[in-house]
Write a structure and sequence with these properties.
Blueprint (H helix, E strand, L loop, with lengths): L1 E3 L4 H4 L5 H8 L6 E4 L7 H5 L2 E2 L3 H8 L3 H36 L3 H43 L2 H44 L1 H6 L4 E4 L4 E2 L11 E6 L2 E6 L6
Parallel strand pairs: 1-2, 2-3
Antiparallel strand pairs: 4-5, 4-6, 6-7
Length: 245
């Protein structure tokens, strides 16, 4: 606080000095001026952070108002009380919710005990169904195994062979008979058409040597040609001495 009581212009003139104004400007703490009375005005008042009309007003400006502070404290206390009450209500509500969700141990044990007979019945029924299903599968597998067993197949094949053998034997004999008859017929036809049969009746075959060309006419031969005459039981090589029409 920069203050002085009232006085003449000469008494207040030091507060118009440059050195005082610069000192106020460079002061590290805020400066409140209360020089003279309300009508007095100096350069120091212009440079100061706050100008008070009188020294008393300057003192009041830097001194806190106890009533104002008490009102602020009362307001903050009231706000804090309301906040605490609201928080307590919220926590109480949350506690009630958690308490409602919490199951007492004896109640939980009682519920489990009541559920045990039902679970036992379901387990027993499930085991019985699985056993019945396993027995059915075993019976089906046993029946299928007996049905497809090698011994059963072998017996079935033997029975089938026993039934088919007489029919096969009869069929084979019949086929052989038909084939013998057909073979005899073809043999007769072959012997009839065979050149050997013709030779057996006294005819011969003549081939020109050395190429073996079949001679069917006397015009194919010349004197001194070599020929081979084939009979039924052999052949003879001959030399042509003469050709007659």
């Amino acid at each position: 606080i920069l203050a002085r009581g009232g006085g003449s212009l000469e008494d207040l003139w030091p507060f118009n000095e440059e050195i005082v104004a610069r000192a106020i400007e460079y002061c590290p703490v805020p400066v409140v001026s209360g020089i003279g009375h309300e009508t007095d005005f100096t350069i120091a008042d212009l440079v100061a952070d706050v100008r008070a009309a009188t020294p008393t007003a300057a003192a009041e400006a830097v001194s806190p108002d106890s009533e104002h502070l008490l009102r602020m404290l009362a307001s903050q206390q009231s706000a804090l009380t309301r906040a605490m009450l609201q928080m307590l209500e919220q926590r109480s509500y949350q506690l009630d919710q958690l308490t409602a969700q919490l199951i007492r141990p004896e109640h939980r044990i009682e519920a489990v005990c009541n559920l045990l007979p039902q679970l036992y019945s379901r387990l027993k029924s499930g085991v019985r169904k699985k056993l019945d299903h396993a027995r059915l599968r075993g019976f089906t597998a046993h029946h299928s195994l007996q049905k497809h067993a090698p011994s059963a197949k072998i017996r079935a094949m033997k029975n089938r062979c026993s039934r088919l053998y007489p029919a096969m034997e009869t069929q084979i004999r019949s086929d052989l008979g038909r084939r013998r008859v057909k073979l005899a017929k073809l043999t007769g036809e072959l012997e009839t058409a065979s050149p050997l049969a013709t030779l057996a009746r006294g005819y011969t075959l003549v081939n020109k040597l050395p190429g073996g060309e079949l001679v069917g006419s006397a015009t194919q031969l010349q004197k001194n040609d070599k020929i081979r005459v084939r009979f039924r039981d052999g052949s003879a090589d001959c030399l042509v001495e003469d050709i007659k029409p």
